[in-house]
Design goal:
It contains 13 helices and 13 strands. It is α/β, with parallel strands linked by helices. It has a single domain, classed as Alpha-Beta Barrel (TIM Barrel), CATH 3.20.20. The strands form three sheets. An eight-stranded parallel beta barrel has the order 3-4-6-7-8-9-12-13, surrounded by eight helices. Helix 9 packs parallel to helix 10 and helix 10 packs across helix 12. The radius of gyration is 20 Å and the shape is globular. The chain binds flavin mononucleotide. Flavin mononucleotide binds next to strand 6.
């Protein structure tokens, strides 16, 4: 029988499948069901830095006046339920910990290293097992260099890891100039894991209405390839664990990411599309694949297809279709 257990950011997981932070991880019944269906760990829906900093309307107004947030962001807040998002979140984490026994990670969505860092300590006090920081600001200002944009990631990593003993993961995007260099440097801070990659809300608009609409909220299996490439390139080069994220919709995709070098795999859209029972299905697919291929433990094959270990490292560098598809 294959042993599916693994370690991720120092935590022992019964298998590498982590339920990603989303609307599916913001109520206790869903989380308990994910645990019952076999999930290795759960990342709780993020609390936003803005929510932590701005406990009252006047704080928000001040932030808006100083240009810190846009009017659209203001519309996002439901003021009536905002009375105390902080204590609600902390209370919820404590409840989840009491009612489950798999590792539970809190999540903070942040864009600065100011004003909210103490909150990490309060999260730690709830007894959760780890903290994932979802950090991203669009590098859309042409007057700012990559270094200027990226400094905040290092500031956040340093300040939060100084504040807590909890293992800290950073969930990042791929809009960075020298991506490999940036992620290797980030992995050399005291963070314990990189989550590659976050999937962002992208704007779209109708050509007749000229109204903005959200583009697809859920990923497709085809979106696996970006994170697969970068997990494979960075495996063995970064100084922390990697969790693969985006486009993992079934057990085979999970196997691929582990072969590429991920220590764990996060998934979300597949549960929105296929229900929570997909959890059990994915884990069974992983187990069947291990049995069919004679692997007794996860570490027996982790990273086998990483760029450093594969017979064909150039495959991950190839970006043009010239050779294979010139007849199409
Ligand atoms: C409805 C929805 C809500 C999400 N909320 C969060 C969130 O609060 N924090 C976060 O870090 N990621 C959030 N995500 C992103 C997911 O955690 C995940 O990174 C992304 O969906 C890519 O994984 P997937 O391809 O398995 O869906 C959300 C995704 C969806 C679809």
């Amino acid at each position: 029988m294959a042993n599916l257990s693994t370690t991720y950011m120092g935590l022992k997981l019964r298998n590498p499948l982590i339920i990603a932070s989303s609307g599916l991880t913001e109520n206790i019944d869903d989380i308990v069901e994910f645990e019952a269906r076999g999930a290795g760990a759960v990342v709780i829906k993020s609390i936003f830095e803005e929510e932590i900093i701005a406990k009252a309307h006047d704080n928000l107004n001040r932030m808006q006046a100083s240009g810190f947030i846009y009017p659209e962001t203001m519309e996002y807040f439901d003021y009536d339920s905002m009375e105390d998002p902080i204590s609600n979140y902390l209370e919820f984490l404590g409840k989840v910990k009491r009612e489950t026994s798999i590792p539970i990670l809190a999540s903070i969505n942040c864009v600065t290293a100011e004003g909210w860092i103490d909150f990490a300590k309060r999260i730690e006090d709830t007894g959760v097992d780890g903290l994932e920081l979802n950090v991203f600001e669009l590098p859309s200002d042409p007057n700012r260099t990559s270094e200027q944009n990226e400094q905040v990631y290092f500031d956040i990593a340093e300040r939060v890891t100084n504040m807590v003993k909890l293992p800290v993961a950073m969930k990042v995007g791929y809009y960075h100039g020298a991506l490999a260099n940036f992620l290797v440097s980030l992995s050399e801070t005291p963070i314990k894991a990189l989550v590659l990659f976050n999937r962002f809300y992208n704007p779209d608009f109708g050509i007749n209405t000229l109204e903005f609409t959200p583009s697809s909220v859920f990923s497709t299996p085809a979106e696996l390839s970006t994170s697969l490439r970068w997990v494979a390139i960075l495996s063995g080069r970064v100084s922390c664990d990697i969790a693969a994220s985006t486009g993992v919709h079934d057990g085979n995709a999970m196997v691929k990411q582990l072969l590429a070098g991920a220590k764990a795999v996060q998934a979300c859209s597949t549960f929105y599309r296929n229900g929570k029972e997909q959890t059990t299905f994915m884990i069974r697919q992983l187990e069947d694949w291990m049995n069919q291929n004679g692997f007794k433990a996860i570490e027996d094959f982790t990273g086998k297809m990483s760029q450093q270990k594969t017979y064909n490292p150039a495959a991950f560098e190839r970006v043009q279709f010239m050779k294979y598809f010139h007849d199409l």
